[in-house]
Amino acid sequence: MAAELWMPTVFDLSSGYPFTHDARAISVISGTDAFTTVIDTRDKKRCVVCGERGRSVLEHAHIVPRVEDETWEDLRHHGFIPLLAKSVQHEARNGVLLCKNHHGRFEDHEFYIRWVPEFQIFVLINHSRIEYMERFHGRAVNLDPDDPRTPFHGAFLIQEMRVRGRWPLLRDRQIPLPILWQIWVRHSDVDHSQAHHGDGEDKEDDRMGEGNDSTSDNSAMLSPTPTPQSPSDQPTSHDDPNTSKNFMTFTNPFANSVELDTLKRSFAVQPNWKASVMEGESWEGSAVDNIAKYRRHVPILNEDLNVMGNKE
């Protein structure tokens, strides 16, 4: 029996090239993978609030919801995040690793996380007064301010306003000084200088999850002495009559233009802001052109240079 003769045929290209891929779909998948990978490594595969770990219990939370493109653009326009930040969905600095429990409470606006420039830390405030969250109130969460991938400070500030909006009749809360780390954080966890150099693997035993108070004596105590800053850089919480050497109170920053401006100035000099500028800009021009580009995206540099010029 003679073999059948096979003749190649031409593809029907009337509806387009048959082997193309959806470029947008590939981009979304790639961006999502990068979002989760960066957060896993940065946050050491643990909930930054309670220390819980395990792929089945952890979730990659968006600080500004992934569908709020307009809100993200407003934050860019008003100087709360860099103009060159990635999209609200794919920017890892708009994400944080939380267990399912705290992710749900975060999205239900039970608590907020506030950046404290004096101590260069992020503190959890249980604004809702929900009893379960009291164990975490006033303690620093495990985010490294020196890591260029740390969440944008301004994104947390917007989330704080939503918490305040859900509980409008509740007064501002005090936190005790000195500020302590969350109970699960050991001394080895507090060495944030190495946080963005390793692969994020944990050395603690599996019992270091939420609700284990056995390490309370090992909690690292943050220095009550503010880091050296110029008077203009100091937040105004110390000027609040409810603030003393033993307590600190965070008022609504949007009700105090001076405090809000101080916070925004602090945001713009952090490593995460500078890293976003470096990643998003093209540096193919001359040295003079590149300096001008950098100054354009870090506004506080222009303000400081203007002040120096006026003094001269």
From TrEMBL:
Residues 192-250 are annotated as: Disordered. Residues 192-210 have a biased composition (Basic and acidic residues). It comes from Tricholomella constricta. It holds the Pfam family HNH_2. This is HNH nuclease domain-containing protein. Residues 212-222 have a biased composition (Polar residues). It comes from the Eukaryota. Residues 47-113 form the HNH nuclease domain.
